[in-house]
Fold this protein.
Amino acid sequence: MALTIREEKEFKYIDEGSGEVLLLLHGLFGALSNWEGVVNSFKGKYRVVIPLLPIYDMPLKQAGLDGLKNFLERFVSLKGLKNMTLIGNSLGGHVGLIYTLSNPEKVKSLVLTGSSGLFENSMGGSFPKRGSYDYIKERVAYTFYDPATATKELVDEVFETTKSIPKCLRIVAIAKSAQRHNMAKEIQRIKQPTLLVWGLNDTITPPMVAHEFNKLIPNSELHFIDKCCHAPMMEHPEKFNDILNKFLDAKRDDS
């Protein structure tokens, strides 16, 4: 089922279901469709909201983690969201961590999957190679344990993005901002219950990164999914959703 994208002011987003809010954040080369399995599984009993992060078109001077955090604050304010479970993949997890530390009263719990913020292998160099489809196909496939998960549609989407010099400049600026911002000291202040779901075969934020997050975030629990790389919600949606559902049910019982 295709997701319906809504538009309001500067924002494009998905808003499905009703109830407690699950706010989902995609990664640097991610898209709203990355979360389709989560939306379809949880919209029956939660309000699932996904803002499209302005990675490719935000003002270049603002292209960085602070700019994305400020964008998210404006979006949450516009939609009047509160008591959220914030769920972030890759760069989205990093933005989620910064947002949570700045707005702790808005976030009930936190879910990180393949999150940056401590260490990551970049997409293969400081500047994505423009014009080489095979290179882009190889790098997108590198994100998944099973290269077949990198569908032609997904590769085409990334390839079109990297053909644009302005978009590439923003991608590089944001990636460098993420690499500079190590959160090892800051995340020890996170009070929210935190779920870590990691691919056991993640080559971008390897399992040691998950263990480090687990060690540093006080109230956190860690789950690995085997034969899975950097985007568990895409590669193993049923396993990811099962782990997430149990975590959310436990937090409902606690509240």
The domain at 6-119+182-254 is CATH 3.40.50.1820 (Rossmann fold).
